[in-house]
Write a sequence for this structure.
């Protein structure tokens, strides 16, 4: 079983009404424990493109993993998420603010 199967299993068998932030915290902790953070980052970024609002929300709530490689990528991601899942628009936009705080608006 690989990490993606574990993540999928946990999402599919989560407790009723478990907020996405809770699994995001678990996955963030797992990323610190594993020696292949790049694999988890790839999974998170793939989930952001899915039509599964819960997986998208979990991905947006993960800390320490930018969901895009550039500010432009974050802006495009936020626009896409806003169109598909308006309830997640604010969280997606929060990543742009985090980028600006970390790297400045020019990157």
């Amino acid at each position: 079983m690989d990490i993606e199967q574990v993540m999928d299993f946990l999402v599919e068998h989560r407790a009723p009404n478990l907020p996405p932030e809770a699994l995001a915290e678990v996955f963030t902790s797992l990323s610190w424990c594993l020696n292949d953070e790049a694999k988890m980052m790839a999974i998170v970024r793939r989930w952001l493109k899915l039509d599964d609002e819960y997986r998208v929300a979990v991905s947006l709530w993960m800390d320490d993993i930018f969901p895009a490689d550039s500010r432009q990528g974050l802006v495009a991601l936020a626009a896409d998420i806003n169109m598909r899942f308006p309830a997640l628009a604010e969280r997606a936009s929060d990543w742009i603010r985090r980028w600006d705080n970390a790297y400045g608006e020019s990157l």
About this structure: The mean pLDDT is 92.
